[in-house]
Write a structure and sequence with these properties.
single chain, 2 helices, 186 residues, alpha+beta
Amino acid sequence: MKKALVILATLVLSFTANAYDYNIEKDHRSNHENSDSIHTGGEQASSSQVCNDHGRAMSLNNDQVIKWKTSQPNNFRARGYVNGTVDEIFPDMTGHHHFSVKIGEQANDHVEVIYQINFGHMPEPRIGDQVVACGDFINSYAQSGGYQPSPDGAIIHWVHRNPDGHGHDDGFVILNGTLFGNGNGH
């Protein structure tokens, strides 16, 4: 199933990139030697872009994220690396893009991605945009401290580089083949 999702993402990115010539490897763990890239007029999203969990390269984990949403308690935290389609835009919250990404086949297979724009400009996502997101997953179906629950019941945030270099692995968002989240931040 994971290989099928990666193949599907590759086909969608190929279409989205308007026939730019590029090659997406199926297993991100072996991409360190690959220098092919996607270029669609913004920053480049390298096919060797790797999502790490405690320094170890991850594979896409849409299915695991979907399971966590229904099997883990509120505020459960793990590393999420998902791909899908933007299907709803939520209101801007103090310099953050909030958008829902459909990551599976069932009606509730959504996760809210939260992108902090001070880590580099990213255009407002649009419904139908293709997304790859790497960051920290949190179940958010009930209020926790001062944080309201997510409309999707879970979020992926910290989808940008870590300016401190410790505590969190770097994250990123690839929106329609363009990489975001590598800016300096504040």
